[in-house]
Structures
1.
Amino acid sequence: MKRSTILALCAFGVLAGCSSSGNWGWYVIDPSTTNGQNNIRFLLGGFWATISLSLIAAALSMTIGMIIALPGMSTNRWVRLPSRIYVEFVRAIPLLPMLFWVFYGLPVVLRSFGITISIDAFWGAIITLAISDSAFTAEIYRSGIQSIAKGQTEAAKTIGLTYTQTMRYVILPQAIRRILPPLANQFIYIVKMSAFASVIGMQELTRRANELVVTEYRPLEIYSLLILEYLVLVLAISFFVRWLERRMGANESR
Amino acid sequence: MAEPVIKVRDLNKYFGDYHALRGIDLDVAEGERIVVCGPSGSGKSTLIRCINGLETHDEGTITVRGTDLRDEASAHAIRGGVGMVFQQFNLFPHLSILQNLTLGPMKARGLTRKAAEARAMSYLERVRIPDQAHKRPKELSGGQQQRVAIARSLCMEPKVMLFDEPTSALDPEMISEVLDVIVDLANDGMTMICVTHEMGFARKAADRMIFMDHGEIIETGPTETFFDAPRTDRCKQFLSQILQH
């Protein structure tokens, strides 16, 4: 696994190596020239937006997901129903149309309720990503929590714990180890989906690459670098998550 | 006679179309020790799970120490005085033995850690495994785990103990160490209902026997009479099968 990632990176390096030959125009991002430096700086400048966008959206998604998931596991179908509807409904909306709807449509809806706020690209993207992703995190929580044997909840009940205490001290500490890997996967999805924010003008990685392509007209080289940027970002997340899992595994032998 | 600790009247329970409990009436007096037996699927476990609200009942009434069991709030109130031991132990695998025992007293009763730990240690001594306090459940044998589960229940200082086939998941050589602990409890005057197939234990610990079949109480009576002179054919047949070996 690790070796294959290194190989992929080497392949990129070789590709970059044939800079002056044929139709390649790596000069646009050649760090030895001023223009190249400026271009690279401009492209890398999108990192901060992509990262903060993804982090805030993920945090919101994890919170909303939990609020949706908990009633979704109730034995009372009327408590369960709104949660199921939310998941089925939100999961069915493609990200891009939802982004347009939130960015262009939501302010109109809010205005009809007398609330006048403008939603900028940053928050528009965050709201969309968070809501869209929360349906999936809710399902991840649900399957993780339901994988903990029913006997655990019953034992907690019989020693007088309330529902909240049962969740907090008995179920969630056990479920977290099963929830974490798919949740990390979902975070990687958010990072990649954040590229859609470019279409409403958010100055993140993809938007910057697009803008540079328009002025430099070197799509192959610039988009290659863009992919490399996402690759580095996602690999960093993967390594962090694996470290986190190992740490939790060491603390908590099952 | 004093008001019974547990009073069950005309209890009916369905799982879908399946009629699991049929018109159960049961009074349990303070200090009474009852063993429930019967073939599997006869509703024994369902009955005691209804008594502390782990299963909801469809018809009839259950009153435990004056509280009418009707919803989750009343079930929560009732469980405060009713301990339960499960066939599968259901210890919390992510906590140490000591933490398993202190969780309830600290979170549900508001005891300080120190008080809860002192109480936990005294009950661990009572079930004869104080030296295992800092291990995880999976490091213990099945018999030890079940004794921890009993101690965990006792830490809540219940007035009634319910046992749901406490030795059925154990290797044969571990059964007696668990039963000994329950017999001790019985001798101390704990009110209890125990579902079990261990008839030797029943003779030793029970005041009264209940035989169930197909969701009904077929026969009930003092332990001696129950074993020596069962009245119904079904009960006779069951006893002859179970006592054969």
2.
Amino acid sequence: MNINELNELKGKALKDLTVSEGYRVVVGAASCGIAAGAKTVLATLQKEADAKGLKNINIVPAGCIGMCVYEPIVEVFAPGQDKVTYINVDAEKAAKIVAEHLAKGNQVPEYMIKDGAVRNLNEIQFYQKQKRVVLKNCGYINPEDINDYIALDGYQALAKVLTTMTSEETVELMKASGLRGRGGAGFPTGMKWSFAAKNVADQKYIICNADEGDPGAFMDRSVLEGDPHAVLEAMAIGGYAIGATKGFLYVRAEYPVAVHRLKIAIKQAKELGLMGKNILGSGFDFDVDIRLGAGAFVCGEETALIASIEGKRGMSRNKPPFPANKGLWGKPTVINNVETLANIPQIYLHGAEWFKSFGTEKSAGTKVFALGGKINNTGLVEIPMGITLREVIYDIGEGCPNGKAFKAVQTGGPSGGCITTADLDTPIDFDNLVAVGSMMGSGGMIVVDEDNCMVDIARFFLDFTVDESCGKCTPCREGTRRMLEILDKITLGKGTPKDLETLDELAANIRLTSLCALGQTAPNPVLSTMKHFKDEYEAHVFDKKCPAGVCQALLSIVITDDCKGCTKCVKVCPVDAITGKVKEKHVIDDSKCIKCGACIDACSFKAIIKK
Amino acid sequence: MQNECKCNCNTADDPRYVELKAYIDSVKGNEGIAMSVLQEAQTIFGYLPLEVQKFISQNIDVPLAELYGVSTFYSQFTLTPRGKHHIGICLGTACYVRGAQKLVDKFVAELKIAVGETTEDGLFTLDATRCLGCCGLAPVIMIDEDVYGKLDDVDAIPGILDKYRG
Amino acid sequence: MEKVNVTINGIAVSVPSDYTVLLAAREAGIDIPTLCYLKDINEIAACRVCVVEADINGVPMRNLPASCVLQVQEGMNVRTNTAQVRKAVKSNVELILANHNRECLVCKRNGSCELQKLCDELGLTEVSYEGKMRKAVVDDLSHSIVRDSSKCILCGRCVSVCRDGQGIGVLDFTHRGFNTEVAPAFDFSMRDVDCIFCGQCINACPVAALKEKSNIDDVWAAIEDPDKIVVVQTAPAVRASLGEEFGFPVGTPVTGKMVAALKRIGFDKVFDTNFSADLTIMEEGTELLNRVTTGGKLPMITSCSPGWIRFCEMKYPDFLDNLSTCKSPQQMFGAIVKSYYAEKFNIDPKKIVSVSVMPCTSKKTEAKRPEMQVDGLADVDIALTTRELGDMIKQARINFPALADEECDSILGEYTGAGVIFGATGGVMEAALRTVADILTGQDLKDIEYNVCRGIEGVKEATLTLPIGGVPTEINIAIAHGTANAAKVLDAVRAGEKNYHFIEVMACPGGCVHGGGQSHVSAKARLDVNPKVNRANALYSEDERQTLRKSHDNPEVKALYADFLKEPNGHLSHKLLHTHYHKRDVYCQD
Ligand SMILES: Cc1cc2nc3c(=O)[nH]c(=O)nc-3n(C[C@H](O)[C@H](O)[C@H](O)COP(=O)(O)O)c2cc1C
Ligand code: SF4
Ligand code: SF4
Ligand code: SF4
Ligand code: SF4
Ligand code: SF4
Ligand code: SF4
Ligand code: SF4
Ligand code: SF4
Ligand code: FES
Ligand code: FES
Ligand code: FES
Ligand code: FES
């Protein structure tokens, strides 16, 4: 196909997308929507609409709409009207939506957000502070239909680059945009491209890093599931810029839906000649292939990822040489993160200045965060760089559930650190987060509240890195394990003041001497919690207490005078630690109790407490 | 020292080996195929025992020790057969801070196996997994293809298990 | 090569631009510790004990880079001796020790261990962690090699040498993180996998995680036993390395001291494998001529390296008929001792304990092959390595450096220069050519140094013109050492790209001088010396010193044919000196 044909197709596709009569019904069907029941909802909507013989109803699955708590979400679009959002839809509700809204035009307010006049998600606070660049198409287009993507300017950027720009100009524009890698380190994408472009080689590669291993992060999955062509288009642009004709998408195996949609997208792009030989008649060839991970966090690290694509153990190797000089099979290779790539088509469509109009001076654009943990509005949010953490946590996330007190937010996952109330007014960008002792990372943002023990959280992250260390270099393989053992000791109440010193020393050495960034950053969660929550560590070590009541060895479960003697707790205790007569106060034998907490949950009188 | 093969690894007419061989032939000649062949083999056989890896080693000319190294590096490969149903409890950060450990304890108590093990009747394999990407529904578990979210109440677990015992 | 200027601990040096900081530091007289680095073999930057502080034109490098892989750059300023670096190195070594079975006093590598030496240099006096340690797996099922996982420091040197150097890949990293191990697939014993027992991994290992299976006690027991007549043969390459066990520079020939020491240890007779190397040339040269003139299977490939034989049996069974049927010199020697020698001196061969000292770990397994028996008697009963002989000499409390030279016993102790050079790659070929050329030309040729056969290039090739049946005929030869090179040659033959008449293969890179039983040369020493070259030179110099330099001139070999064997490749030769091979399956579970 050539450019004229692309534009023709775009006109036609846009008409189909923006229904001129009837309804376009979109069901959020990313992984977590599907987990919540989106498939049943889709099927029911279609079945009911067919049964009623309704015309001009276009029911499509879409990617992530962004608000997990409301899944499954159905949005109804009609010409000339604001969209209507239905939340927590199930089969029954779906049937009713068809019967009332689609058949008769009567909206069903009881299935909408319970907030006065709110008719759709755009009106709630959760969305108002967001700016959707990366997620522009997510939750709106049908990711399994290339026409939807083309309708909304899809592949126009590639067309522009291939027909009006040289490779050098393409690299220069990327430099000018100030885009920094969203995969963690924030390295300027244009610079990375220019290194690879400079190298002369018979073959170069571009790799999309879709390993997304940070536990609690799902930005990249959402992009792949909701807007796969954006990533493919960006890879082709990058390929043109650096002189690569072959791309690989390295996707973690835990993302079957993303892989499925990517495969469809690649097939459709190839059919239309937007991938493959002589793209848009420009003479540029570009092909992509998918490679699946198999469960190893370290494979998000570039050199480990390369080893994995080469079919080997995902062990990192020393840098330099950097992949831009010596990468996949020894050839110059650029590795870009999914979200980084998803920004790219729009940068070429709207220009570097447009992109820099969002965000801060040194961190242009937006950033997607996966907001999770102890927060009311869990979900996917895209904000312009520069708004504060407080805005994200309180305005968008609406604080911690059940009125609990916010304690900290962990950014940067297992490589990052925690940020406390004191630093909540920090404007979010790459450098500021580092300045407050954490890092941007890939965008996981996990909130913890007063019920979480920070020593335990540090232990959790370290346990993760110990498990995921590739095992190649001494400090990471051996050192993180020793740190974990010390933390275990502390949470068991056997810690000594010397242990705190040893932790510090080990951490410093692991950071300084580990071979790759996994090890170099592994001590961060410990160091940052030691810094901000020294009191909690000291309570464990000196007082043998866990202030948050999490570390089981350090707490007693006791029955207070509120006990009514209902005997319910006796029945749930797995080790028969509770005794007492009916209607009399019960007691727990501390020597038997394994602190499972089952009795606490069982008691209707809240008579059992942790001490 | 054995001179003759004593194991019954006669692969010629086992349809699973035929299928694997066909896959290998379809990718042979490409570089770095070891991972994808192992992935395909695990799909076909359900796990990667010695005979299968030996077959692969001979057919793609990669030392068995290297294949073994790869198959023990990645957590998705398994060298032992798994139970009929695979239970994955998410121990990603979001699930962890929302109490996933309690779920683990409950499953361990219910099934009387440790994480990573398979019940004696071969019905369930219990695993802790990394983030399933449904953090919004934390804590989350996955049994086979079904995801169960918002499992704040551990007492729901026996009921869920019963569905698979049927 | 372009040069760059760097400063190391304040000392300015100018080094080639492809140098690493580690090598540049040596130029500046600064020693940086290493553990995983092994020049030209393992450069994976894993142990992190070679870390340094560095900046480039004043811009500090992130963290502490590993000097073993850090390439020098103009304007680089390196510091190896700061508090931070010392602390980091010590900390990493301490972490290694925390997961190491620290029993130096009863350890095989006590004294030659690179880790132990490093601990001493760093002044490491305690290990402050007491957590989990790797589970100990001791695999001693093979006749050649013992693997002890509790000593392994996961440096990967064995992995690289076996997979990349030898092209086999018996050992690899398995599992990950703290559970990482280096082991054969599915935790098989090395006995049951495609290991050829070349012992290159032992030579590469800085610690005692890989070592030879010791037979020292068996030898002492035999010597103690009054009913036994214990004879010993020493292979050509042993004399080029044994001295290293006693502090001599790498590649010092110590033949006379070695013979003296063997006598003091208490062997009843001290002979020389060089004798049977000459014998091998007679048999193998004749076999080659027969094959060439009668249209036998070509190329003919040498068979004196048991590591190579195993490799061929496992990986290239279609070449088994190409192998010379000659037993190796070790086995020929044993067979002659228990037949000709026993007969001549009227000894009951059952009373003879035939001991060999070899540069080789594979020879231990070769000696146990069922084919290596004549009338139910093993040719060789016990095969020791050079290192084991060193240990025995120490155990016997012999002051080795002070020994005066002595000569081997007769009648199996005489040898020519041709037998000596067997120990280096190309040596068998050169020795064979010396004899074959003489036979074919019917002359006593003077030009006997075949330089095409010498040197450590992986594959050496030549075409020689020899008068066969009076007609000048082109003979194509190839020499490969290291099994990865052997595989290259065989692949080319298999593909029809090459047409050779005669191929020499040695399993070990450099040949037996660099065999798996030779004295350990530390990674640090290998920065300055190449044991393959130094030891080969020791052998070539001994060859030059010999008056007799052609196998067919060896008087004792001549006598052997005249009195006993009658003719090369004759009936008795076939019974005693020739063997056969078979395909070998591996990784079999019963
Ligand atoms: C242990 C580790 C894990 C990583 N995981 C990921 C990941 O899952 N996804 C990702 O895009 N980058 C990950 N990275 C960062 C990548 O190595 C790399 O910097 C990034 O993909 C580059 O792309 P960008 O420049 O577009 O950010 C990881 C890095 C480390 C050290
Ligand atoms: S830092 Fe950890 S993950 Fe990275 S190479 Fe070392 S052991 Fe492997
Ligand atoms: S916490 Fe668990 S073990 Fe302890 S008394 Fe309650 S139910 Fe029993
Ligand atoms: S459940 Fe609560 S009220 Fe009932 S016996 Fe136990 S502690 Fe008392
Ligand atoms: S291997 Fe080295 S450090 Fe370890 S016990 Fe033996 S001598 Fe000591
Ligand atoms: S070094 Fe000290 S402890 Fe060790 S053997 Fe010698 S005297 Fe004994
Ligand atoms: S002895 Fe040789 S073949 Fe066997 S593991 Fe060691 S290096 Fe590899
Ligand atoms: S066996 Fe020896 S060479 Fe191999 S990894 Fe272990 S310590 Fe290193
Ligand atoms: S080359 Fe020499 S030392 Fe090596 S296996 Fe062969 S005979 Fe043994
Ligand atoms: S709504 Fe998209 S990830 Fe949950
Ligand atoms: S070939 Fe021996 S195990 Fe099958
Ligand atoms: S942390 Fe459990 S689904 Fe993400
Ligand atoms: S990291 Fe340089 S010697 Fe091991």
3.
Amino acid sequence: MKILVCISNVPDTTAKITFTDNETKLNKNGVQFIIGPYDDYALARGVELKEQFGGSLTVLHVGEADADPQIRKALAIGADDAIRINAESLDSYYTAVQIAEVAKQNSYDLILMGRESIDYNSGVVHGLVGEMLDIPSYSPVMKLDIEGSEVTITREIDGGKEILKAPLPLVLGCQEPIAEWKIPNMRGIMTARTKPLNVVEPVSMEALTAPEKYALPAPKGACKMIPASEAETLIRLLQTEAKVL
Amino acid sequence: MSVLIYAELDNGSIKKTSLETIAYGVKVAAATGDHAVVLAIGSAEKRELEKAGHYGASKVLHASEEKLKHENSLAYADTLVQAAQQEGSKVIILSKSGLGDAVAARAAAKMKAGIVSGVTALPEIGETFKVTRSIFTGKAFAVTEIKSDIKILVVRKNAIELDESSVATVQAVVEQFAPKLADEAFKATVVNVEKASSELSLTEAAVIVSGGRGMKGPEHWQPLIDFAKALGAATGCSKPVSDLDWRPHHEHIGQTGIKVAPNLYIACGISGAIQHLAGVNGSKCIVVINKDPEAPFFKAADYGIVGDVFEILPRLTEAAKTLK
Ligand SMILES: Cc1cc2nc3c(=O)[nH]c(=O)nc-3n(C[C@H](O)[C@H](O)[C@H](O)COP(=O)(O)OP(=O)(O)OC[C@H]3O[C@@H](n4cnc5c(N)ncnc54)[C@H](O)[C@@H]3O)c2cc1C
Ligand SMILES: Nc1ncnc2c1ncn2[C@@H]1O[C@H](COP(=O)(O)O)[C@@H](O)[C@H]1O
């Protein structure tokens, strides 16, 4: 089985987000970057499938060199090799074109992604890549089992879940509880240093969207505290003041 | 030309979030001088679909083939693209949901359309076409220009104020729509669909009562459920609660769970970790009940009560029962 896992490189979930350069750039100062939490699920399941069926597991990132430590971490967790497409990725379409290009040259059986990246979160890259490769895409996938060439998928739908059987190849957006996040062990960290991380240049295309500027939400007004002894007044305030009941 | 709006169906009716999206699309159409056409896929009664007119849409295309019964983003995207071609649509609008994102993405790739998901307000249309969307799980916004000829917007709940009192009684014209569907879209077979149909869906609910580890255990959930019932609310929970199996996984709200945007979110015994807030920061009004006055959730709340949930909740339930 030939597996590709696409990872994004995003600020840690607890990071405080601010912008610089006249609100046109993310301020990376003091921000810790991580593999996208959903992508981490995809990677963990990918590693398990590789252990089960053999084959190869490649990680792919579209982004700049500052992502290399996170890519090395993915190698330490169990990927065999890595590809970094050396381009800034701010637009989902552009990112998908780059991923699809690599996929076309390598015919993977399974392309695993996260349900969404948590920076410019969209949840659309898997659908775009699936369509560009003309293969099915499903998201968010909570359970993934493979027997022969048949794949059984449990995915979340509004208010419930759906179980599907589909043939390979597939593109899947993953979420918990598809697998437990994996932490690299010492041996993994050592071998990761010598695993190949191939940097390739992007295919050129004009982006269809262009970010113009960023903004932070307006600061929240003070919280109105209601003494516990008068808790009942909350209901009236919600009805007459906040008008949400 | 037209603005095309994809309206999701649930049990034969247009979803509430999709009604809001129709109203949004109608406003966009007014700004571009086009008319608004709705596409509905799946089975529904004509009368139900005519309601799109109440929100200002002139026409509904209805693709109702049996084959389209299951949520199939591949076939739905095929259908959407053909509808857009027939109607000459340059702007296509969908609601933010798993299905909405998947259909939008596949349609965008077919049409080489710029796609922006998570839109939170009406676009600014002038010489350029700009949208505002939520990024970093609600911690910030981005203003983005869409430069392609065809533009796809996936819109979040509460992107516009939906004023129910201005809803008109005009009926939309419903036309059958029969797309040509490629076999490739049906390679997967649906084995089973489990839907908690009796429960109010979290993404549609106007009010949510949610519990955290402060609720102490699954056997103590009844006061929260009673309160939710009194308010006609859906119930949710924090991640540890679903990890511990106190509550089902589909109730898990937050960064790695469901993102909700109700009018009212009531958090009971939830500390307010940033990953939890990421799932609720689209809510209009947030109430926090926590015995710790230092709980970070109070900083994100509109109303707060410092106290013991087990003492407070039954009293709130009684007070809610007197509501009309
Ligand atoms: C990558 C990542 C993703 C995550 N994603 C999510 C997510 O999607 N959703 C999520 O919820 N969490 C998520 N988390 C976990 C998050 O960091 C917190 O651990 C979690 O939200 C805490 O849940 P809690 O508030 O229920 O529990 P606690 O933090 O244990 O808080 C319990 C609260 O209850 C209060 N309390 C106790 N007893 C009472 C009482 N009798 N009456 C009133 N109040 C009481 C306490 O004062 C306390 O504030 C994520 C973490 C990581 C690292
Ligand atoms: N820059 C990137 N490089 C590689 N994979 C990415 C990148 N951005 C997004 N992805 C993948 O696509 C998934 C969905 O991303 P998005 O549509 O941006 O929410 C993510 O969970 C990743 O698996």
4.
Amino acid sequence: MICLWTRWLISRSHDLGKPLPGFAARHAESCRRCREYARFCGTLPSRLSESLPARLDRAPASSPFRIPRVTEESENRRSGGPGRRVFLRPVLVAAAVLALAAGAFLFLRIANGPSMSAERAKAALEDLRKVTAAPGEWPSAVTTAESTLDKERRLIENAAKSAFDYLQNRLNITIVRADRQST
Amino acid sequence: MSVSERNDSKTDEDLAREARAGSPRSFEELALRYRRRLFAYFRPRLGSDQDAEDLAQETLLKLYRNIGNYDPTYRFSVWLYTAAGRLAISEYRRRTVVAAGLRSIAREEESREPEDPPEKGEADRLWTLAETLNGNQYRALWLRYAEEMPINDIAVSLGKSRVAVRILLHRARTNLMKRQGEIK
């Protein structure tokens, strides 16, 4: 037990620079293992730092670090320095979460809703037929639409005719319709 | 940081300050200083050199993107290893399945170690032994002896309390000594 305590105190003296308490120092002098531990801890910094360059040389010689072009350009564009923070807007996030929740709720409602019975399906089909069936007044509606178009055509024809007459009188020329000319 | 790598008169903090002011070249210099260190920091827990190198690159890129958040009153290395530790944890979690396979490979390699006498020097062998320690013990040891960080900075970098760091270091030393065969 005293060995464990002594070694802990030896470590503490190396980490914090505190002197080793008297009892621990005396124990370390008499205990071979604790003495070796103290020696090991004492030589560790120099041994490790001496070998560090060789250790680092073992790292593979790869291409040096280059800042990717895109990042560099985007950094240069920013006026507030190279650092960049992305803030989530709480209102937008809350709205998105609500929309997602509503969507999920509707989906679950539809997915878990009662399936349509045969009678309900038949009634729905009947309704659909009623909607799509052509009503009796459709032919007259078509005729009315056609007569309106005919009236429009006549109006345009008359307007064109009066324009032709005006031009013939004004310019002293004769305008003949192509279809009448051919006949 | 070794003298050979610190031939530039500017400190890490100076370079970080310049990088923060918008100098990509200063950051590239910092990256040059720390790339191999990050590699050595990550390597023991990752499966391959390539993975360690990728993670080192990723860490540096992340730091560059966030250099605006760097507070020059703190040591640059503390900031770097804090980010590195966080990235490493994410990476280790992502690769849990792969790591399980790799651990078995590592165990095989470990069992082969006595048959294969190390060609490296005794001191270099110490780092090799350190790599076989528990991940946190190795990282604490690395920050203490390779980066020469005080306990406070190690605690910040590893996201642990000061006492936890001291316990980690104590266990790392004890295990390292046992593995070295100095305690029979």
